[in-house]
Amino acid sequence: MQLGRLDHVGIAVTDLAAARALYEQVLGLEVTHEEVITEQGVHELLLRAGEAYVQLVAPLAPDSPVGKFLAKRGEGVHHVGYAVPDVAAALAELRAQEFEVIDPAPRVGSGGTTIAFLHPKSMQGVLVELVEEGTGHRG
Amino acid sequence: MQLGRLDHVGIAVTDLAAARALYEQVLGLEVTHEEVITEQGVHELLLRAGEAYVQLVAPLAPDSPVGKFLAKRGEGVHHVGYAVPDVAAALAELRAQEFEVIDPAPRVGSGGTTIAFLHPKSMQGVLVELVEEGTGHRG
Which residue from A1, A137, B26, B59 has the highest number of Cβ atoms inside 10 Å of its Cβ? Predict the structure, then answer.
């Protein structure tokens, strides 16, 4: 198993417009991708910071995973994403080592990526997303 | 103001040896720097993940900032670091915009860096570290 580059930091926010203004106008990062992912219940913005992204995620509904996170913890870092060449292979290897995973099989992420989440219990308290680039454009 | 690349994700851990084994042996990242920073009360490891780092920080004492964080929140993401060319200039600009800062002036970080922390209140719940590279080696 080989984690690749740090792909993104996912930050849960209640007010996406305010968060966008902070990162874009005050801190000078560029929004390179925007997507509403109904299946995950989030409205997402990606801002480029070098070869990685700041990913701002706002919930579409209070009972979505990000909505529940915000109710419990408030705004802040929600997860950390790492690039891997093959999410299915990485998942198989980690499951063989008895990692707790949230997604037993890869699924579609934003920008045409293939993703899977690993449970914080197996990652020292950090919700981790594995990201395999697809043919989509994330900027 | 222009944030540079995402420099690192700081993860607070109680058992540094276990966290190191996870990231190094299971996930294949390379430890490029290790430092005990008495002033900040942490034992730190940097592992390279592309052009960014995973920074594992364990407290030297329970009443250190990271020790208190662990007591309150448990293991998990502690802060996010971004590169800037000039921490003093960035701090001055943000303070002029009434950002709440933890460090009113730049201070010495690990690996010869110059750093300053911004308060989560001004950063949508995220503790943010500005990092200016120095002449030291972080790998």
Answer: B59
